[in-house]
Amino acid sequence: MPAPQLGGRGRRHEDPAAGLRSPLLEEFRNAKDRKWTLKDIYGHVVEFSMDQHGSRFIQQKIETADEEEKQIIFDEIMPHHALKLIQDVFGNYVVQKFFEHGNELQTSLLAKTMEGHILPLSLQMYGCRVVQKAIEHMPAEQQSAFVDELAGDVLRCVKDANGNHVIQRLIESVPPERLTFIAAFQGHVCDLATHPYGCRVLQRCFENLPEHQTRVLLSEVQEHALQLMQDQFGNYVIQFVLEHGQPQDRASIVSKLHGQMLHMSRHKFASNVVEKALVMAEPSSRRALIEEVMAPRPDGPNPFVSMMKDQFANYVLQRALMVADQDQKEALVELVKPQLQNLRKISHHGRHLVASKWLDCDILPLNDANYL
């Protein structure tokens, strides 16, 4: 039997309705009232696995089947049809069930069959799901074999719509010392952080790997922090470090915002980082950021006036009101009060701030119609 083609981007599933179904499968699809068992489909497991209804039937039965029944089903799949089913729109779910409910020998044999094909399977729409399931259920030694196969193409996988999920699962499931491909990310952190899939992989690295593996990656993040804050994907990496990173990493990123508060607050993506920084910063750093917003500028009005009218920065001001110390909150409100009347008239975005519950406090004269 010729080997199945690997590495496709998913293929149109052949519809058995075009006269390709066996009489048994036709009967199965039409005999709704009959109580079917796995024994009823022996000899037709591969065909049933590649049929929507047949696949669902096998999946359900495998969960409660005894060892003998599972072995018969397994023997029809292995070794000649496993790769074909792994890449099939319905068959991949049957293979996944064996990783979940098969015995140790069955899962090991399935993983062995996949070895040598991990890259094309990881890039394939359905194969990548089976690779992920295999990673979850096989021993560390076989996980390492998967890692080794992908090591030379890890950056390609990270940027692939299917392959990135495999890399994420490896980072989550494999002992860190076996993840030799992490070194390939060095020098590419900015590129990865600004990629729709790469930014997810970096976050999984920071979430799951020890300090000695992530330090060089975090250093690159800090080096390009201002650029990443303003990127549609990179800002999520920065926010993740602010929320989950070490105190020194958080402090380093917060320090980049000093002198940049107005500009960053008015930016579509960076404004989200500013909000996160206001929440996560140490109290003294938070005070400094809020003070920068309130401080008069020699070349124009206070930054907060522009921020009140801005579609993004007005949310930063609301966040500042939420997290500020009481004295700064009072000072902010005093700055805002003279602007409220005009703000309600001239700025659609400023109305968010006017309506903010954080202005509804004892600091404002709530019964004064000139203000609220």
Automatic annotation (TrEMBL):
Listed InterPro entries: ARM-like, ARM-type_fold, PUM-HD, Pumilio_RNA-bd, Pumilio_RNA-bd_rpt
Keywords, ordered alphabetically: Cytoplasm, Repeat, RNA-binding
Biological processes annotated in GO: nuclear-transcribed mRNA catabolic process, deadenylation-dependent decay
One GO cellular component term: cytoplasm
Top-rank taxon: Eukaryota
SUPFAM superfamilies: ARM repeat
GO molecular function terms attached to this record: mRNA 3'-UTR binding
Record SMART domains: Pumilio
Subcellular location, record wording: Cytoplasm
Pumilio repeats: 40-75, 76-112, 113-148, 184-219, 220-255, 256-291, 292-334
PUM-HD domain segment(s): 20-361
Protein family per UniProt: Belongs to the PUF3 family.
Protein name: Pumilio homology domain family member 3
Organism for this UniProt entry: Phanerochaete carnosa (strain HHB-10118-sp) (White-rot fungus)
